[in-house]
Amino acid sequence: MKLKKKLPFKKLELTEELNSTFKKGQIGAVLEIIDSKTVFAEFYDQHNNLIEHNGKLVFKIGLHQFEIKK
Fold this sequence. Notes:
Radius of gyration: 11 Å
Number of helices: 1
Number of strands: 5
CATH architecture: Roll
Strand content: 25-35%
Helix content: under 10%
Structural class: mainly beta
CATH topology: SH3 type barrels
Order of helices and strands: HEEEEE
Shape: globular
Mean pLDDT: 90
Number of domains: 1
Strand order of the largest sheet: 4-3-2-1-5
CATH superfamily: SH3 Domains
């Protein structure tokens, strides 16, 4: 699968709101591809610190919910 080689550790920007903490435009990084539709990602605040939400640092999101930043 081409995604396994291209996506890990790429910067991402959410294209839709996930919850009250992660709004559209939130910046993060892809950590691992789960399958052809979902990935594990982490998110950062304005000071490049990891954001924790409900005791978690890594979140499962759909490929349609973000775009890769260059």
